[in-house]
UniProtKB/TrEMBL annotation:
It comes from Aureobasidium subglaciale (strain EXF-2481). It comes from the Eukaryota. GO terms for cellular component: nucleus. One of its GO terms (molecular function) is histone deacetylase activity, NAD-dependent. The active site is at H138 (proton acceptor). Belongs to the sirtuin family. Class I subfamily. Zn(2+) binds at C146, C149, C170, C175. Its cofactor is Zn(2+). The chain holds residues 172 to 451 of 556 of the full protein. This is Deacetylase sirtuin-type domain-containing protein. Keywords: Metal-binding, NAD, Transferase, Zinc. Residues 8-270 form the Deacetylase sirtuin-type domain.
Amino acid sequence: VDEGAPSKTLESRTVDGLAKYIKEGHAKRIVVMTGAGISTSAGIPDFRSPNTGLYANLARLNLPYAEAVFDISFFRENPTPFYTLAHELYPGKYRPTVTHSFIRLLHEKGLLLKLFTQNIDCLEREAGVPDESIIEAHGSFARQSCIDCKSPYPQEELKKQIEAKTIPRCHKSSCHGLVKPEIVFFGEQLPSAFFDNIDVPTEADLCIVLGTSLQVQPFASLPGACKSGVPRVLINMERVGGLGSRSDDVLLLGDCDAGVRKLAKAIGWEDELEDLWAQT
Ligand code: APR
């Protein structure tokens, strides 16, 4: 062990211990992993929260089971439930949260190694996190194509169809297949960008997990890829995914907007964070 190196572990598994670790410059390559919980305060329901979560509120779509709305074989049979949901969730109607701005702030400070998100709402982009720093592990509404012949489909045309509550179909008359945004449905492969970057967490010196139940693989395995001795922070309503099992895991349980504000204040970034969010 290099005696001269500052202690790489946290002084304490608290906001102050974490703030000190960051202020002392131990965190230069931060990997962030997010889920739907960081967009709930923007008005977008998450999936599994009891009562408020999407899966508790899809009864009106009379699905055989909640996750069918994102199941590729169900979609082929009946695309209407998904498009009903897409009409409600389509990006552009929502403002990023202060948690999104916190991730942007990490980038502004040159500390963001990579953001892995499961969200399809593109709010990280809207908050100003650059494209090259974002891995949208479950795809997004950014592109759409025919599920049969894979031909790309014009974004403006898709928006019109969603607004009109009609189902977009492939323009190729020989195909006429269903068009779907490039959101990863159950039964589909994750984007190659996810697998190309799957080792990035092994290079991180701090891991921050925000607003996810870590129920869905392979995304849920990302925090475990962080090397031992690298603190892993969970900012979430509930304890999930085995976080807290390592001696330098930090659990900041509760609302993520409140959690990132507390951390920013402890580091001394409070004003910068609020200014960034105010511009968003
Ligand atoms: N602050 C902190 N935590 C929150 C907040 C909040 N304001 N709101 C919700 N949460 C927490 C919930 O307690 C839960 O632990 O965020 C987590 C959200 O979990 P899910 O609803 O399961 O969402 P997510 O983890 O993103 O789901 C993963 O499942 O349905 C598939 O592909 C879909 O990407 C999605 C994946």
